[in-house]
């Protein structure tokens, strides 16, 4: 039991660190793109588009982390098999698909292999979240059915 509490505590610390450091990174994207990266590395014509893609995908990633934190709280304090978590997983899927679409758009003006990999990873993450949402929905239905019979 103690090992489980330690793992939950470490997971919460990691998610909080990722969330708050993500806010700092998102806020500093314009400074990084326009001030810190040499002009020879990024063409002047795509700096604005690159900044927009990075900012919007960062916001979507922060939303995913926020939603994960909310789901994790239900795991620690209440029953995780609720329709609220099913909706949260569906919203995470939508945010993953938004990130994937943003990076498909980025491929139109600056293609890299890493960008293509990000598209694939977030498309798979979106599909995984949808499947997990359906699994949670089924678990909620079984739980409600079981609660009625007891």
Explain how this protein is built:
This protein has one domain. It has helices spanning 2-36, 47-77, 83-109, 113-149. The longest helix is centred in the C-terminal third of the chain and has 37 residues, at 113-149. It has four helices and no strands. It is elongated. The model has no long low-confidence stretch (mean pLDDT 92). Helix 3 runs antiparallel to helix 4 (113-149). It has 150 residues and is mainly α. The chain starts with a helix and ends with a helix.
Q: Tally the beta strands.
A: 0
Residue-averaged pLDDT: 92
List the total number of helices.
Answer: 4
Which outline best applies?
Answer: elongated
How many domains is the backbone divided into? Answer: 1
Portion of residues in beta strands equals under 5%
Protein name: DUF2975 domain-containing protein
Transmembrane segments: 12-34, 46-68, 88-104, 110-133
Keywords: Membrane, Transmembrane, Transmembrane helix
InterPro entries: DUF2975
How would you concisely characterize the structure shown here?
The chain is mainly alpha-helical.
Keywords:
single chain; 150 residues; mainly alpha; 4 helices; 0% strand; elongated; transmembrane; DUF2975 domain-containing protein; DUF2975
Secondary structure layout:
Elements: H1 2-36, H2 47-77, H3 83-109, H4 113-149
Helix pairs in contact: 1-2, 2-3, 3-4
């Amino acid at each position: 039991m103690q090992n489980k509490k330690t793992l939950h505590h470490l997971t919460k610390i990691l998610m909080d660190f990722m969330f708050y450091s993500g806010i700092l990174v998102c806020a500093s994207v314009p400074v990084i793109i326009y001030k810190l990266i040499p002009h020879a590395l990024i063409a002047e014509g795509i700096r604005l588009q690159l900044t927009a893609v990075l900012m919007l995908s960062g916001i979507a990633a922060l939303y995913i982390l926020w939603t994960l934190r909310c789901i994790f709280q239900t795991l620690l304090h209440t029953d995780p098999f609720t329709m609220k978590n099913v909706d949260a997983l569906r919203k995470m899927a939508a945010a993953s698909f938004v990130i994937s679409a943003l990076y498909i758009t980025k491929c139109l003006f600056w293609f890299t292999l890493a960008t293509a990999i990000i598209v694939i990873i977030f498309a798979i993450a979106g599909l995984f979240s949808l499947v997990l949402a359906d699994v949670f929905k089924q678990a909620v239905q079984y739980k409600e059915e079981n609660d009625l019979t007891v």
